[in-house]
Design goal:
Length: 487
């Protein structure tokens, strides 16, 4: 009897040792640290949300977004606010003093959005997006001085203190044009992508695709901001609607685009050395790589399953390896060396993270990330140590890796923001956090800094998680937020 009890006790102790290690294969080494360095609302009496973010030379954080508030505490005057419209705001947060040091409106009498902000090697601030304003601020050296259609894209450049507009130009054609992302290189070349309805969008004769193929095509353009001129520009699309969402460049200035395409149904989107063909049932994510002069493509592939798939953000290493994130409704999305092999969304969406090699001949890894609710990944960043940072929004109570919810003020919240950090091989999660309040919270921008991980986005929650906040919330509308986590 004693031997039997001893044997049972020994087996029990062995299981206590082994079970945590077997679980750790999937989620180790999870850290669930509730500490937040800083978290605040940002906004006024109208709707506000932050859509993009950049790191400055001295650890400053520049955020930009859209505002309908007439009462932001601006201390710069790049342009006044036009009542009844939606303008851009740009704000600089200094972590050393824990406050916003520069805040300004920017825009015309119509509506504007801002999709990208960058801090250039020359110390200047670059933004891009779209405007319906016919009086949007442009400079005398603009390559397009007037709005050619309903909405046009724009590129604008400011000094670091947001006191002077140094360059600003429209870019677009006779219909609607939307810039979705921008990268600035060390030569002050701007690389932009987006979507256009305009047959007259400015493309050049030597481009890969000189004519618009569908009602709505993607585009890629390269602008020399030193001379204020477009040097390369092309459409990208098939017979149906196609959307450029995000882009990056490698050390040879080859350009990589992701987005989503409805031309998969008509099998007309440009493909080359593709990993996957089109789905006849829905829209697909795509990855397209152009040579530096946009005259031809290195490769172009769909990436997805039988239901809707959308690429939202891309990160390109110097050697041309590509990290892609987005979301999918496909239960047969291609997974390789995955952290999460199975689709959890049922009729909802899961986020995904993918890495492919430089010539698109190999999927290094591809994984779902999500629970039983809707999960949307909006941003990806790769740290110097190879860690993979993902942020977005989730309605899943069982979102992977979240052991408890110290940063959630209401367990019955509608949608929460999330930050998930993967090890470099994406097989294990280092940390996964949901944060927010009782209503809708979404992370729209992410920057990995030496001092912390910065997340910006929008919230309608009255009880969003705060730490040393600078602003109160608007109880009847959306506010922007800025949250900084320790590394």
């Amino acid at each position: 009897m004693e031997k039997k009890l001893f044997l049972i006790l020994a087996i029990f102790l062995i299981l206590l040792i082994l079970i945590p290690f077997s679980y750790a294969y999937f989620l180790a080494p999870i850290k669930d640290d509730p500490d937040i360095i800083f978290s605040t609302y940002f906004g006024g009496s109208g709707e506000d949300f932050a859509s993009c973010m950049a790191e400055g030379y001295s650890n400053e954080i520049y955020i930009a977004g859209q505002t309908q508030s007439t009462d932001l505490p601006v201390n710069r005057n790049l342009s006044g606010f036009f009542p009844g419209s939606q303008d851009i705001f740009i704000a600089c947060f200094n972590p050393d003093v824990g406050n916003f040091t520069e805040i300004t409106y920017f825009g015309g009498s119509g509506d504007e959005n801002v999709k990208a902000i960058h801090f250039g090697e020359d110390g200047k601030i670059y933004i891009s997006g779209s405007t319906s304003s016919t009086d949007f601020p442009v400079t005398p050296d603009a390559f397009q001085k007037s709005n050619s259609g309903k909405w046009d894209g724009y590129i604008s450049v400011f000094d670091p203190k947001l006191e002077k507009l140094e360059f600003s130009s429209y870019i677009g054609g006779e219909e609607q044009d939307s810039i979705q992302d921008m990268v600035i290189d060390e030569n002050n070349y701007a690389y932009i992508t987006g979507v256009t309805d305009s047959s007259s969008y400015p493309v050049l004769k030597d481009s890969f695709q000189g004519k618009k193929s569908g009602k709505r095509d993607g585009f890629v353009s390269i602008i020399d901001l030193n001379k204020g001129e477009i040097i390369h520009s092309t459409f990208l699309g098939g017979a149906s609607d196609d959307y450029g969402e995000s882009l990056g460049i490698d050390e040879d200035k080859n350009v990589y685009i992701t987005g989503y395409s409805y031309s998969s149904k008509t099998r007309s989107f440009p493909l080359k050395n593709e990993l996957f063909g089109p789905s006849p049932f829905s829209y697909d994510a795509f990855i397209t790589s152009f040579y530096s002069d946009l005259s031809d493509i290195k490769y172009s592939t769909y990436f997805g399953g039988d239901s809707g798939d959308r690429g939202t953000d891309i990160c390109v290493l110097e050697d041309g390896d590509v990290y892609l994130t987005g979301y999918t409704y496909s239960d047969n999305f291609p997974v390789v060396n995955a952290f999460q092999n199975n689709f959890s969304g049922d009729k909802n969406s899961d986020a995904f993270i993918v890495r492919i090699n430089s010539d698109c001949s190999e999927i290094i890894f591809s994984t779902y990330l999500g629970g039983t609710g809707n999960d949307f990944s909006n941003s990806i960043s790769i740290g110097e140590d190879g860690l993979i940072y993902i942020s977005g929004s989730t309605s899943s109570d069982d979102f992977p890796g979240v052991l408890n919810n110290p940063l959630i003020k209401d367990e019955n919240s509608e949608v929460d923001a999330f930050l998930t950090i993967f090890l470099p091989d994406a097989k294990n999660i280092v940390s996964s956090k949901k944060f927010g309040g009782e209503k809708f919270d979404s992370a729209l921008a992410l920057v990995d800094m030496d001092s912390g991980v910065c997340i910006a986005g929008r919230t309608s929650s009255n009880n969003f998680y705060l730490e040393n906040p600078n602003f109160n919330n608007n109880e009847d509308s959306y506010d922007a937020f800025l949250t900084i986590f320790p590394k």
